[in-house]
Amino acid sequence: MKLSAKKLIAGLFSLTLLIALPASAISLKEAQSKGMVGEANSGYIAVVQESSPEVDALVAEVNAKRKREYASIAKRNNIDISQVAARAAEKLEARLSKGEYYQDNLGRWKQK
What we know:
It holds the Pfam family DUF1318. It comes from Microbulbifer hydrolyticus. This protein is α+β, with helices and mostly antiparallel strands. The protein contains four helices and four strands. The protein has one domain.
């Protein structure tokens, strides 16, 4: 069975994308250590420096997961999700490594 040049190129291009995508994805820890994102005082992460589509996607993904978890905890304990998020913000700030960013109660970004 012969492959046309067009199909071969399309297949190689698709393979290249599959290989390249995981390498370009940034992890939360990497984004935090590079100062791209920080722990906001809301219990979610936020962009600290200029954003990019990759960082925006990471922020959206992490925050969606956190929101689901906070909602689950709030429901189990019959409390408001904002209480869970506030407590999480305190714990997450305490776990940051030196040089990583967090947001103080006035909304200012600070380095640990």
